[in-house]
Design goal:
The complex is a heterodimer.
Chain A lengths: L1 E2 L2 E4 L5 E2 L5 E2 L1 H13 L3 E10 L2 E9 L6 E7 L3 E3 L9 H11 L2 E3 L43 E6 L11 E7 L2 E8 L7 H4 L8 H6 L6 H16 L5 H29 L3 H22 L8 E2 L2 E2 L6 H25 L2 H7 L7 H7 L3 H5 L7 H4 L20 H24 L18 E8 L4 E8 L5 E7 L1 H12 L8 H8 L4 H4 L1
Parallel strand pairs in A: 4-7, 8-9
Antiparallel strand pairs in A: 1-2, 2-7, 3-15, 5-6, 6-7, 10-11, 11-12, 13-14, 15-16, 16-17
Helix pairs in contact in A: 6-7, 6-13, 6-15, 7-8, 8-13
Chain B lengths: L1 H10 L21 E3 L10 H5 L5 E4 L2 E5 L8 H5 L5 E3 L14 E2 L13 H7 L3 E7 L5 H7 L13 E3 L8 E5 L4 H13 L5 E5 L1 H5 L21 E3 L6 H11 L5
Parallel strand pairs in B: 6-7, 6-8, 8-9, 9-10
Antiparallel strand pairs in B: 1-4, 2-3, 3-5
Classes of the chains: A alpha+beta, B alpha/beta.
């Protein structure tokens, strides 16, 4: 459908590229800014090679229709930045500048995001020559100066077993005035490699975009390829993929509540949840051999069917784990000393959440009902809904509370699906080539939040552009702003309450 | 307080009796491959064509599988028309030499041996490691982290992960070593006092794994540092990592 200012699209329904209007950069900016201001949201914004240049695509979420609007514009070597009028575009535009060597003019904070060379030889948004070294985090940082003001720099190597990232705090005494987050250390060049795919490695890349979200990202890819190749997926396979996705959520939420507990020094729940997370991962391993669900999914369905003995065993294990998990979580929430540390720490307002376009647990903890399973259902979620869990306070407590609620909902969903599993083929291998000259948006509600994969195919049906947006891409800015006015000693707690992905961001 | 005690009672004692007893693994777990190259017909190239990372090679009638790049996805075993390749339930796969991971199935598997006696005496009954995530996808990191949970209770073997490289006896590295992590990894290594050990965990850290050949990453930590222990897998099972560490300190032989 080609409307006045954009093509309408839905989750996992391909759109022909010819239906997407190509606007002038000025009109493009005007439409995106207006729609985001009118309660819309920037789901994805990226460049794609087109002729000799780069075409910008914006995927806008519309709150009312359950669909998206897709707009395009040819950028040239520079174009008027959206960011001064639309905060959500800020990191997207930094990414576009870095990947394609295009300059979004008047971007207020145009710095590299991942510290790599542009994908187009001879183009660089900062005018750096081909021989000039590009070092991570070697750039200007926002800096507050004055008496008693000091800067704290942390990372890339942190104290625990965590991924690398660099954090700069501007502090007045113990209080944080500003936090700037600098990433890119995990940049492996996956997105660039996906052009010209699919190949034998594609599914493995997906499972390693963020290793703790192998199912979430894997499912987004499978759904996109199924949509492009018009491959029907059996109800049984959709049910099993739903089970896989909710098991991933369950294990990670359990781990997060344990880690939050550990960060405030409440060790009973920390140690119980550490074990319970492992038991939940082992349920996934029971089904597919890998604790992270590696190899479980594939385009067309699942590679590992649940043999008749498995659903019963999985339910038994889930029951036992769930009983212990409930006990560990209730203990956490009934400890006044823990609640005192969770409440009013790292709070974001619903208005700020909307302005930043946060997703997932962080958004639902600000009373914003944003959940792909609910707003843009695909697969099993078109038929079986999971109630939305929200909490209004926006603080660490709210983010813990949302996880607590979702653990309950996911457990219920998994148990029910395992008990009522339908009959049918586990996998229907795609038989047709991917549709040519098309664009498909595939969204999955991963345990962190909205995962968005957008694929553009060329005239031969090969992937011309694969754009991945991990929920962390939207949410890192939320963490930075949650820290304002907090004590620096609360950083680990706030950080854990978001628990964002470094590699999912760095790609 | 009473609540915490009651919860502790109901949760029970959960530490595994490893290495004396191995907990049952999933029947679908893909551990050490069993390879019988003598069954491979001369012209067959089913597995070599399927492998997403080129871990299988056939030369001079010999079929070899490089466990250092293998993702353990099992597609080769599923497609092998001669059933000459299967994945066993054996989780013990750590080795001391990179070449030991290039595997033709003949002869016993060269499990890791303990550190040299002099170094072991120096370390005493403790091994303290600094972990460096150098481009990992957080799966190896996560399954290294679980070793510190009550299930595995790594500290009972005298092994601990420490915050500062200056307090460490060595590094445990995950990830292919991205260009952007190279300098941080080298600085961390330099900060560890001599003598020091380096442990590479996962296909990425051993060979670059699925990212090998990307301009943005290297081919594992071995390109930059001398590696004392290689733990294959994508990611390795926590027990595979634990077994490797215990062999390195001579706790398991």
């Amino acid at each position: 459908m080609n409307t006045e200012c954009g093509a309408q699209a839905f989750n996992c329904i391909p759109v022909r590229l010819s239906e997407i209007p190509v606007l002038s950069p000025d009109v493009f900016r005007e439409h995106v800014v207006r729609r985001v201001a009118e309660n819309g949201r920037l789901v994805s914004l990226f460049g794609s090679p087109c002729g000799g240049g780069v075409r910008l695509y914006a995927v806008l979420g519309t709150a009312d229709s359950g669909g998206f609007t897709v707009l395009a514009a040819d950028a040239g070597d520079r174009y008027p930045a959206l960011t001064p009028y639309c905060v959500q575009a800020s990191w997207f535009e930094r990414e576009i500048a870095e990947q394609w060597g295009i300059r979004p003019e008047e971007h207020p904070w145009l710095k590299p995001l991942r510290y790599h060379r542009a994908w187009r030889a001879g183009h660089d948004a900062w005018g750096r020559g081909p021989g000039e070294p590009i070092e991570p985090s070697v750039t200007a940082f926002y800096r507050v100066e004055g008496e008693e003001v000091h800067e704290v720099a942390v990372g890339p190597v942190h104290a625990g077993i965590i991924e690398p990232g660099h954090f700069r705090f501007q502090c007045h005494g113990e209080n944080v005035m500003h936090l700037e987050i600098s990433l890119g250390y995990q940049h492996r060049g996956i997105e660039r490699r996906l052009t010209g795919e699919p190949s034998a490695r594609t599914m493995h890349y997906m499972e390693a975009l963020a290793g703790d979200t192998s199912i979430g990202h894997g499912l987004a890819y499978c759904q996109a390829m199924e949509a492009l190749t018009r491959t029907p997926v059996s109800f049984r396979a959709e049910e099993i993929r739903g089970i896989a996705l909710e098991l991933e959520r369950l294990a990670n939420h359990a781990g997060d509540l344990g880690a939050l507990s550990g960060d405030v020094g409440y060790l009973p729940t920390a140690s119980f949840c550490g074990r319970l997370r492992g038991d939940l991962l082992n349920i996934t391993a029971l089904a597919c051999g890998s604790r992270f669900g590696r190899g479980w999914l594939r385009p067309g369905g699942v590679a590992f069917d649940l043999t008749p003995d498995l659903p019963g065993q999985m339910v038994d294990r889930l029951e036992r784990t769930s009983r212990d998990l409930t006990g560990a979580i209730e203990l956490l929430f009934s400890s006044p000393s823990v609640m005192a540390r969770f409440e009013e720490t790292g709070a974001l307002t619903p208005a700020l959440c909307q302005e930043l376009g946060l997703v997932g647990v962080a958004a639902r903890a600000c009373n914003v009902g944003r959940d792909v399973r609910f707003e843009h259902p695909a697969g099993i979620y078109r038929f079986v809904s999971i109630p939305l869990t929200t909490w209004p306070t926006g603080d660490v407590f709210a983010r813990a509370q949302v996880r607590r609620g979702e653990i309950r909902q996911s457990t219920h969903f998994i148990r029910q699906r395992l008990e009522e599993l339908s009959e049918g083929p586990a996998c229907t291998a795609p038989a047709r080539p991917p549709a040519a000259d098309s664009l498909v948006i595939s969204l999955v509600e991963g345990w962190r939040g909205e995962i968005c994969h957008t694929i553009i195919t060329g005239a031969d049906g090969q992937i011309a552009r694969y754009k991945v947006v991990d929920p962390s891409f939207h949410n890192w800015m939320g963490l930075a702003l949650a820290l304002r006015g907090q004590q620096i000693s609360d950083f680990p707690l706030c950080n854990k309450s978001f628990n964002l992905s470094y590699c999912g961001f760095d790609l | 307080m009473i609540g915490a005690l009651l919860a502790r009672l109901s949760q029970g004692y959960r530490t595994l009796k490893y290495p004396e007893e191995t907990p049952p693994l999933s029947g679908r777990y893909r551990g050490l491959p069993l390879l019988d190259g003598t069954r491979c017909p001369a012209e067959c190239a089913v597995c070599t064509g399927l492998c997403p990372v080129g871990a299988i090679t056939r030369r001079e009638d010999k079929t070899r599988l490089d466990l250092g790049t293998c993702l353990f996805c099992g597609q080769c075993a599923a497609a092998c028309p001669e059933h000459s390749l299967t994945f066993s339930q054996e989780h013990r796969m750590a080795v001391r030499q990179r070449d030991d991971l290039v595997f033709d199935g003949a002869g016993p598997f060269p499990h890791a041996t303990a550190l040299e006696p002099g170094l072991r005496r120096f370390l005493g009954r403790s091994l303290r490691l600094r972990e460096v995530s150098a481009g990992g996808c957080n799966a190896c990191e996560a399954d290294t982290n679980v070793l510190s949970t009550i299930s595995y209770d790594l500290a009972r073997f005298g092994i601990q992960f420490v915050a500062s490289p200056r307090h460490a006896d060595g590094l445990l590295v995950t990830g292919p070593v991205t260009r952007n992590m190279e300098s941080a990894l080298m600085k961390t290594y330099e900060a560890v006092p001599e003598p020091k050990v380096v442990i590479a965990v996962g296909a990425c850290a051993i060979s670059g794994g699925m990212f090998s050949g990307h301009d943005e990453v290297g081919r594992g930590v071995g390109e930059l540092l001398p590696v004392d222990l290689f733990v294959p897998g994508c990611p390795p099972h926590p027990l595979t990592i634990l077994d490797g560490l215990l062999r390195l300190i001579g706790r398991v032989r």
